[in-house]
Amino acid sequence: MDSNPQLLLVGCGKMGSALLDGWLESGTAPDTVTIIEPGPTPKVAAGVTVITDLSELAIEATANIVVFAVKPQVMDQVVPAYSRFTGPDTVFLSIAAGKTIGFFENLLGDQAAGEGPSIVRAMPNTPAAVGRGISVCVGNSAVTDQQMNACRELLSAVGEVAVIDDEAQMDAVTAVSGSGPAYVFLLTECLARAGVEAGLPSDLAAELARATVSGSGGLLDAADDSPETLRQNVTSPGGTTAAALDVLMAEGGLDALMTRAVTAATARSRELAG
Ligand SMILES: NC(=O)c1ccc[n+]([C@@H]2O[C@H](COP(=O)([O-])OP(=O)(O)OC[C@H]3O[C@@H](n4cnc5c(N)ncnc54)[C@H](OP(=O)(O)O)[C@@H]3O)[C@@H](O)[C@H]2O)c1
Q1: What is the pLDDT of residues 177-225, one digit of tens each?
Q2: Distance from the CA of 77 to the center of ligand 1, in angstroms?
Q3: Which CATH number is associated with domain 7-169?
Q4: Does the model's pTM come out above 0.85?
Q5: Residues 6+ apart with CB under 8 A from 2
Q6: Mutate which of 52, 57, 71 to test ligand 1's pocket (most atoms within 8 Å of Cβ)?
Q7: Where do the H-state alpha helices sit in 35-166?
Q8: In the CATH scheme, what is the homologous superfamily, with its name and number, of domain 180-273?
């Protein structure tokens, strides 16, 4: 693949614009990026081309990477027009929750050469908006190492990237890292409410909960220790933390609750994929 690949970003909403910002910050040349966005014109760096519909793009225009960042529910209306790019020099990268590689192969596969389209399916998460996301990706057999590396590089502009071989794991990935930020935000809400129950004014409880969760995230990120060691480091035998952990770690406590939650999200992801 070209060392300066031509990028088409289809959809520049929350996730698309986070990706775009990350690419430009990490040195992607603006004149290699074209955005297709029918909504309000996104504010973009000089040199980036913005159009509202694919029909505005010259018919001879090529793209090395087409990134689909529209909502999953409009994907089947949006994707077919992009089959004009299907070919050995183009990889399609989807960040849509629940849309399988097979879904994209069906919509993009009618290629004269008879070779299937290169598809990479990725699952990012919302901390991508602050460059702290994690994306997991899986490609079909048509994806070359070079194409996978290029997709990896694009996703690494907004955080960490893991590559898996088995698409079936994407449902559990969605349940852990895709939906995971919501669990952490809920934990923050619960901690604040519990602080109010324990006698704190609500604004102080909210501030303490927020700073504690984000500070612990920062510590987890910076430290080489495992979460278990970090937990043990703040737990003196017979102390206050130990009293709370006795409740959280009792049978049927947080571990069991989290397992049930992740199991439910995995099952729902499987259902949505059909
Ligand atoms: N946000 C997350 O937490 C998250 C996490 C992981 C994965 N994802 C995935 O990321 C994708 C985008 O999500 P999002 O939250 O960024 O959604 P979003 O903010 O609604 O962005 C989607 C954008 O696509 C535009 N669009 C609609 N039809 C289009 C078309 N025909 N051609 C080009 N653009 C079109 C929309 O414009 P209009 O508003 O005018 O319709 C909107 O600006 C989804 O597939 C989602 O599953 C999101």
Answers
A1: 999 999 999 999 999 999 999 999 999 999 999 999 999 999 999 999 9
A2: 13
A3: 3.40.50.720
A4: yes
A5: 64
A6: 71
A7: 75-78, 101-108, 145-156
A8: ProC C-terminal domain-like (1.10.3730.10)
